[in-house]
Amino acid sequence: MQLTGIHHLTAITADAAGNNRFYTDTLGLRRVKKTVNQDDTSAYHLFFADGAGTPGTDITFFDWPAPRERRGTHSISRTGLRVSGDSLDWWAARLSDLGVSTGRIETLDGRASLDLEDPEGQRLRLVAAPEPAGQPWDQSPVPAPHQIHGLGPITISVPELAPTQAVLTQVMNMAKVRDYASPDGQGQVHVFQMGEGGAAAELHVAVQPGLPAAQQGAGGVHHVAFRVPDTAALTEWTNRVRGFRVPNSGEVERFYFRSLYFREPGGNLFELATDGPGFDVDEPRDTMGQGLSLPPFLEPRRAAIEAGLKPLD
């Protein structure tokens, strides 16, 4: 049994309209789904991805009126976004022109990288590692050769390695392949890969016992999800997680995919999610993400839900 890579990452915003502008207008991603948090329908759940909403390309946001994240360990601390190898200079110039503060282009773990933050402090990293290639979005303000291909790697911070490593290797069948010094000067980063590996299938674990515990909030990450191909595979993984006596959610139907949730020992929330049925299950691919989509069990409450949401566009 192998996970096949990163599925999505879900973060927190306290400014849905500003968040929507940054990820579509600045980063050039497509909003592929405008829906609500299925457990808190007062909050948007926005999905930004490549042109087709391909699994492994979407960064998503819960819109909660939360204070800013307090940074520290026990957190998902950096989100990689893959671009073509010759695109980082173009991105550095674009972000500078748009007033977005960035670091310098540097080689990190053998890959050219450019760190930046969104307006709420969400920590992002453009990584020169395009494979697998994303599907271009023809309405993006970013030219197709420079568009973001997808997620990865994802970095988490924990105070000690051994408990987290045990879950990653023994339960989740990841392989520890290398390590490198953390670029923030705090500890060592250990690289775990799924299957054949590559940036789209890597989890980087920064061991940082000197940091305080993070407090989740706007500009922080809620959870990271890993790919499984279908519901049959998810059931196998559910049985495996239960067999290791890891507390978990049981399988949860999210309509666009099916999920299993559990926490690793460092406190970070993990999700296993199926590749399908996908974001075009309830609206045409050409127009998905424009209107408010609701899963069938929420559709009878549409009027009340829409009345409680702020305009985005």
From TrEMBL:
Location of the VOC domain: 5-129, 150-275
Gene3D superfamilies (UniProt xref): 2,3-Dihydroxybiphenyl 1,2-Dioxygenase, domain 1
CDD domains: PcpA_C_like (cd08347)
Keyword Oxidoreductase: yes
Pfam families documented for this protein: Glyoxalase
Record keyword Oxidoreductase present: yes
GO molecular function: dioxygenase activity
Entry keyword set: Dioxygenase, Oxidoreductase
PANTHER family: RING-CLEAVING DIOXYGENASE MHQA-RELATED, RING-CLEAVING DIOXYGENASE MHQE-RELATED
Protein name from the UniProt record: Ring-cleaving dioxygenase
Organism: Paracoccus aerius
Biological classification of the source: Bacteria, Pseudomonadati, Pseudomonadota, Alphaproteobacteria, Rhodobacterales
